[in-house]
Amino acid sequence: MMPGRRPQACCRSSPLNEDNGRFLLLAALIAAYLTAGATVFSALESPSEAEARRRWHGTLHNFSQTFNISAAELRDFLRRYEAAMAAGIRADALRPRWDFPGALYFVGTVVSTIGFGMTTPATVAGKAFLIIYGLFGCAGTILFFNLFLERIISLLAFIMKACHERQLRRSGLLPSNFRRGSAISEVDSLAGWKPSVYHVMLILGIFAITLSCCASAMYTAVEGWNYIDSLYYCFVTFSTIGFGDLVSSQNAVYQNQGLYRFGNFMFILMGVCCIYSLFNVISIVIKQVLNWLLKKFGCRCCSKCHKSSARLGRRNAITPGSRFHRHNISMETDGQYDSDTEGRRLSGEMISMKELTASNNVSLAILQKQLSETANGHPRNISMNTRQNGFSAGVGALAIMNNRLAETSDSR
Amino acid sequence: RLGRALSPGPLGHLNEDNARFLLLAALIILYMLCGAAVFSAIELPTEREAKEKWEERFENFSQRHNLSRAELQDFLREYQEASVAGIRVDDIRPRWDFTGAFYFVGTVVSTIGFGMTTPATVGGKIFLIFYGLIGCAGTILFFNLFLERLITVIAYIMKSCHERQLRRKGVLPHDSRRGSGNSEVDSLAGWKPSVYYVMLILCVASLIISCCASAMYTPIEGWSYFDSLYFCFVAFSTIGFGDLVSSQNAQYESQGLYRFGNFVFILMGVCCIYSLFNVISIVIKQSINWILKKLDCRCCPRCQRKFFRSRRNVVMPGNVRSRRNISIETDGVNESDTDGRRLSGEMISMKDFLASNKVSLAIMQKQLSETANGYPRQLSSSSKQNGFSGGVGALAIMNNRLAETSVDR
């Protein structure tokens, strides 16, 4: 077997492109996760469903008996009530649905895709307008969350890097009186340092928990839910699932109503941003697990790959004799393999003569710039190093973090 | 003033990324206010009418059967509680048998969250929090991977069509082997599909899926076709109000087939609409960049002509000092810059510089060897050479794959 053969090509006649393999593996895992979850929820909730059903039949029966109303007539009345509930009416008076604040709350649930459902359009015009409105509103809000994710990762990376520097400085690895940007040794020891995805996940997780606890404290006091229900509500809302079984700020009147409504808005906004970022960071970890699984499957089929996979299994690493197997590699795949050394990925790419000359010019320009900047002590040269060689890759919001976290930029 | 990202003006010395973020926030708030006004105007009359009608019915019923308001209200409150527990007047399918629970976890991980089934026990609620944390993250990854695969397929198909077109027009010699002619590489190098084409394709795909799904829901659920379309949009965008939910009746004809069709349609629909949202968000991002540019240039008339040259990080004499406020993170996000130019502006260490020299040699070596072997995919790989990880969220997938997001125009 030739060295450099991709692990997956070993044992199948039609090797699955790695990206497709990852996608299908994820689909299979999610299907398994859904099945397992369904089983657990079914076991947890079926008894109480049976209980609630029994209780309701009892109540219906009693009422029918006590007031001498036929069951059919009662059912008819309840059917009307069901329709009224769909229009937002409840036994106890709620705040109006479609006054301006109510409509604002509704629009908020639409663009954030939370979608509680406590307010829904009843007219045809409203539904039609919703479709058009939602198309652009949701897209814009997705952009907003993605920009927020990018900003917060930048902020965290910056803070953590500053702490790391201070740590290095204190432990004497760096002379404490040098200017940033002047010493190559500093650059070397800090070059390529990026926060680990696990640290970022931890920080975001702590922040999310703190936010949820504070919000729950507010809801427990104002809405009268118990604390667990409030936490549950916070999770369901911030993850944009938005069942609608519990919805905040629905009563007709509250004490300090303006303040509460403002607090509700702020908490939901910050919570959704935070949990969205947390989801995306967790999905990096999941992606790494998938890559690891794929590698294990690949290596199991081809035991000889084991040793060489680290060196040669990387796609597009230039190795003698590996040309033959390059046919099935789509270059789009390259972009996904975000744990590759970007330098090596770069070295494997085909370019035209034009690009080659361009990159030579680039090298000269880089040198020129470095010299000029060094003379001026540009403060941020450290973090720039590592972005030199990357290119657009990664998946969705993951790409924001593609070159900013340790797990997603260095080859380890 | 040359080379400064944002001249002082209404935005002060705001970093461009932050300015973009704040501008987007302001626009979204404005969008929400306008939307609220429109919805309020459309729906308020109907709400009043519904309330009046219900009041009337309530009165009639309580009078007819000689019930006090309080008693009737108590009864309705009990029904409300039962309703939250999933009980309806007419029998619906059980909520928590296996298929019902499967539908439920589906609405959880996709974040649609209809709400027709919700956990009632404390154990269920706590388990939901942990389950949802991992499930939603995995499903977001799934949708992002789907988006990436979809863009790849679309780009590949469009590129082949583009090649065929060029070949027919005689721009490429008919018998040139891919990978051998410089001219072919030149004319196709860097060609990528436009975001507008991809958006159009996704729109058409979404429309087709929605129309087919609605055609399925209308006869089986008994909704009007328009209501089915509305349901499709609400479900596929993961908003998931829950006012209309498919597959809730106790019994259907061809039940297994319908449930399978329901699952497949919702899955494909969410994938398509999610991708569509992300592609639209690129367009929105470009609009915001354009607005920022306009705001910037209005304050500084001299910028107008020189704007193209004053791209951040272009190496120019004399503009070194103004570089201080530019965060490097900005670079990654300004995806309409020429990637090559962005590359030229980056600071690197000597180590990286030597590495990139080696890279150039390796590239040349590989090109020579591959050319000898006629590597089929030379064309598209050239354009990915110079990009680097940038862009925002799912936008980054498209960062170097669409014409608007990779080439300087």
TrEMBL record, chain A:
<keyword id="KW-0406">Ion transport</keyword>
<dbReference type="GO" id="GO:0015271">
    <property type="term" value="F:outward rectifier potassium channel activity"/>
</dbReference>
<dbReference type="InterPro" id="IPR005410">
    <property type="entry name" value="2pore_dom_K_chnl_THIK"/>
</dbReference>
<keyword id="KW-0630">Potassium</keyword>
<dbReference type="Pfam" id="PF07885">
    <property type="entry name" value="Ion_trans_2"/>
</dbReference>
<dbReference type="InterPro" id="IPR013099">
    <property type="entry name" value="K_chnl_dom"/>
</dbReference>
<protein>
    <submittedName>
        <fullName>Potassium two pore domain channel subfamily K member 12</fullName>
    </submittedName>
</protein>
<feature type="domain" description="Potassium channel">
    <location>
        <begin position="95"/>
        <end position="152"/>
    </location>
</feature>
<keyword id="KW-1003">Cell membrane</keyword>
<feature type="transmembrane region" description="Helical">
    <location>
        <begin position="23"/>
        <end position="44"/>
    </location>
</feature>
<keyword id="KW-0407">Ion channel</keyword>
<keyword id="KW-0479">Metal-binding</keyword>
<keyword id="KW-0813">Transport</keyword>
<feature type="transmembrane region" description="Helical">
    <location>
        <begin position="103"/>
        <end position="124"/>
    </location>
</feature>
<dbReference type="GO" id="GO:0030322">
    <property type="term" value="P:stabilization of membrane potential"/>
</dbReference>
<keyword id="KW-1133">Transmembrane helix</keyword>
<dbReference type="InterPro" id="IPR003280">
    <property type="entry name" value="2pore_dom_K_chnl"/>
</dbReference>
<comment type="similarity">
    <text>Belongs to the two pore domain potassium channel (TC 1.A.1.8) family.</text>
</comment>
<feature type="domain" description="Potassium channel">
    <location>
        <begin position="208"/>
        <end position="287"/>
    </location>
</feature>
<dbReference type="GO" id="GO:0034702">
    <property type="term" value="C:monoatomic ion channel complex"/>
</dbReference>
<keyword id="KW-0851">Voltage-gated channel</keyword>
<feature type="transmembrane region" description="Helical">
    <location>
        <begin position="230"/>
        <end position="247"/>
    </location>
</feature>
Automatic annotation (TrEMBL), chain B:
<keyword id="KW-1003">Cell membrane</keyword>
<feature type="transmembrane region" description="Helical">
    <location>
        <begin position="101"/>
        <end position="122"/>
    </location>
</feature>
<dbReference type="GO" id="GO:0034702">
    <property type="term" value="C:monoatomic ion channel complex"/>
</dbReference>
<feature type="transmembrane region" description="Helical">
    <location>
        <begin position="20"/>
        <end position="42"/>
    </location>
</feature>
<feature type="domain" description="Potassium channel">
    <location>
        <begin position="85"/>
        <end position="150"/>
    </location>
</feature>
<keyword id="KW-0851">Voltage-gated channel</keyword>
<keyword id="KW-0479">Metal-binding</keyword>
<keyword id="KW-0812">Transmembrane</keyword>
<dbReference type="GO" id="GO:0046872">
    <property type="term" value="F:metal ion binding"/>
</dbReference>
<keyword id="KW-0630">Potassium</keyword>
<comment type="similarity">
    <text>Belongs to the two pore domain potassium channel (TC 1.A.1.8) family.</text>
</comment>
<dbReference type="InterPro" id="IPR003280">
    <property type="entry name" value="2pore_dom_K_chnl"/>
</dbReference>
<dbReference type="GO" id="GO:0022841">
    <property type="term" value="F:potassium ion leak channel activity"/>
</dbReference>
<keyword id="KW-0407">Ion channel</keyword>
<keyword id="KW-0813">Transport</keyword>
<keyword id="KW-0633">Potassium transport</keyword>
<dbReference type="GO" id="GO:0030322">
    <property type="term" value="P:stabilization of membrane potential"/>
</dbReference>
<dbReference type="Pfam" id="PF07885">
    <property type="entry name" value="Ion_trans_2"/>
</dbReference>
<keyword id="KW-0472">Membrane</keyword>
<dbReference type="GO" id="GO:0015271">
    <property type="term" value="F:outward rectifier potassium channel activity"/>
</dbReference>
<keyword id="KW-1133">Transmembrane helix</keyword>
<feature type="transmembrane region" description="Helical">
    <location>
        <begin position="195"/>
        <end position="217"/>
    </location>
</feature>
